[in-house]
C-alpha cells in the first residue's frame, strides 16, 4: 500500500488510524474494538472463554467466532436493544433464529434445546461405507 501522491516526505512514515482487512493483526484489533465498544453497555468477557461476552444481568450472551457474532438469550427488549446498539457502530445482518452454528444443528422446543450433528454423522457413515446400516438406540446414563 502506498501513500497518496503529494504526501510523501523523505524520512517520514505514515501512521494508520484503522486496521486493514486481511492483515494478521486485523482480527485481534477488531476483537478489541468490539469488546471496548460493548463494555459501556454492560457486556464483559467471561472467565471461561474470551470469545464469549455476557451482559451484566447474565441474561444475554454474545459468542464471537472470527467476524461473526451469535446472540444467546431470551427474546425480548434486552436482545432488541443490543442488536440496535450493534447496528449503530457495525454492519449487522440479523439472521433471526439460530438453526445452525459451526456444523451443529440447534432445535429449540418448550422442553429445552437439542443439539445434533446429522451432517457429520452422515459423513462418517459414508467414509466407512455404513450408510445403509440399521440404527440402534443406545441409552445414555
How would you explain this protein's 3D organization?
- The chain has 141 residues and is α+β, with helices and mostly antiparallel strands.
- The mean pLDDT is 83.
- It is built from three helices and seven strands, in the order αββββαβββα.
- It has helices spanning 26-38, 77-89, 118-127, and strands spanning 43-45, 52-55, 60-65, 68-73, 100-101, 104-109, 112-116.
- Strand 3 (60-65) and strand 4 (68-73) form a beta hairpin.
- The chain has two domains: 19-96; 97-133, no CATH class.
- It is extended, with a radius of gyration of 22 Å.
- It has a four-stranded antiparallel sheet, with no helix packed on it.
- Helices cover 26% and strands 23% of the residues.
Task: Give a short overview.
With 141 residues, the protein is an alpha+beta fold. The chain has helices at 26-38, 77-89, 118-127, and strands at residues 43-45, 52-55, 60-65, 68-73, 100-101, 104-109, 112-116.
Provide key terms for this protein.
single chain, 141 residues, alpha+beta, 2 domains, four-stranded antiparallel β-sheet, three-stranded antiparallel β-sheet, 3 helices, 7 strands, extended
* Nearest-integer average pLDDT: 83
Q: C-alpha Rg, in Å?
A: 22 Å
Give the biggest sheet: 4 strands, antiparallel
As a percent range, the share of helical residues equals 25-40%
End-to-end separation in angstroms reads 60 Å
- Please identify the structural class as seen in this structure: alpha+beta
The number of distinct helices, counting runs of at least 4 residues, comes to 3
SSE pattern, N- to C-terminal: HEEEEHEEEH
Indicate how many domains the architecture comprises: 2
Number of separate strands: 7
Order of strands across the widest beta sheet? 1-2-3-4
Rough outline: extended
Uncertain spans:
none
Assess the beta-strand content as a share of residues. Answer: 15-25%
Amino acid at each position: 500500500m502506498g501513500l497518496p501522491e503529494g504526501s510523501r516526505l523523505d524520512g517520514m512514515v505514515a501512521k494508520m488510524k484503522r486496521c486493514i482487512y486481511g492483515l494478521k493483526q486485523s482480527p485481534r484489533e477488531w476483537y478489541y474494538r468490539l469488546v471496548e465498544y460493548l463494555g459501556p453497555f454492560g457486556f464483559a468477557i467471561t472467565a471461561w472463554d474470551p470469545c464469549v461476552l455476557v451482559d451484566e444481568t447474565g441474561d444475554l450472551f454474545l459468542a464471537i467466532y472470527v467476524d461473526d457474532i451469535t446472540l444467546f438469550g431470551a427474546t425480548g427488549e434486552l436482545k432488541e436493544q443490543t442488536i440496535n446498539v450493534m447496528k449503530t457502530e457495525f454492519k449487522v445482518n440479523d439472521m433471526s433464529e439460530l438453526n445452525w452454528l459451526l456444523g451443529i444443528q440447534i432445535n429449540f422446543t418448550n422442553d429445552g434445546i437439542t443439539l445434533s450433528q446429522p451432517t457429520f454423522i452422515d459423513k462418517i457413515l459414508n467414509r466407512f461405507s455404513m450408510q445403509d446400516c440399521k440404527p440402534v438406540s443406545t441409552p445414555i446414563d
